[in-house]
Amino acid sequence: xxxxxxxxxxxxxAAAEAFRTLRTNIQFSSLDEELKTIVVTSxxxxxxxxxxxxxxxxxxxxxxKKVLLIDCDLRKPTIHKKLGISNQDGLTSLLSxxxxxxxxxxxxxxxxxxxxxxxxxxxxxxxxxxxxRFKALIKELGEVFNVILLDAPPVLxxxxxxxxxxxxxxxxxxxxxxxxxxxxxxxxxxxxxxxGGKILGVVINKIPAKSKSYYYYSYDYK
Length: 222
Prior knowledge:
Blueprint: H1 6-9, H2 14-27, E1 37-42, H3 49-61, E2 67-71, H4 79-83, H5 91-95, H6 101-104, E3 106-107, E4 113-116, H7 125-129, H8 132-142, E5 147-151, H9 160-165, E6 170-176, H10 182-194, E7 199-205, E8 218-221
Parallel strand pairs: 1-5, 1-6, 2-4, 2-5, 6-7
Antiparallel strand pairs: 3-4, 7-8
Helix pairs in contact: 2-3
């Protein structure tokens, strides 16, 4: 299920260590408030946010915390592909009351790591993610799981990440090295700030390896 995730495939690698550093930085980024719901997004497609959030979820689960990863990209979901699991049913099935949480939340082979895929693509993604039912669902799941990570669509493409940021603990941006443009990152930040979302920091992804000890992923505080 997770063989291609670097945190499992090569846990002693510099990249895997970088995810553990990211986990620690997030945990200490807010000492006065417990970060239970974290949105992971990017400015544009292809920057690696789904890979980052999957590895982050795994490293958090490895500390003993009960972690749920939700694919909230209801337009172009990829978590099920990354983890090699079915997406026949998922979040949209739960929101439409076709399935129960017990039926759609999948336990992984990694202790404490659970996944809720997107489910069938709906005609109204933004409306679903901004609905009272979805907010109530996140609150209910927060009583079962220690941490909930939400994989959201790129900020500049659609409003979904903005909607999620209004009721989640914080937002982490993934910026592809050589891909993300400065003005795009600034604009994305402005959009999250505009709705009152809390930005935790930026993950610089896809940095070229210059040596064996060079991190492929790094975390930078705002």
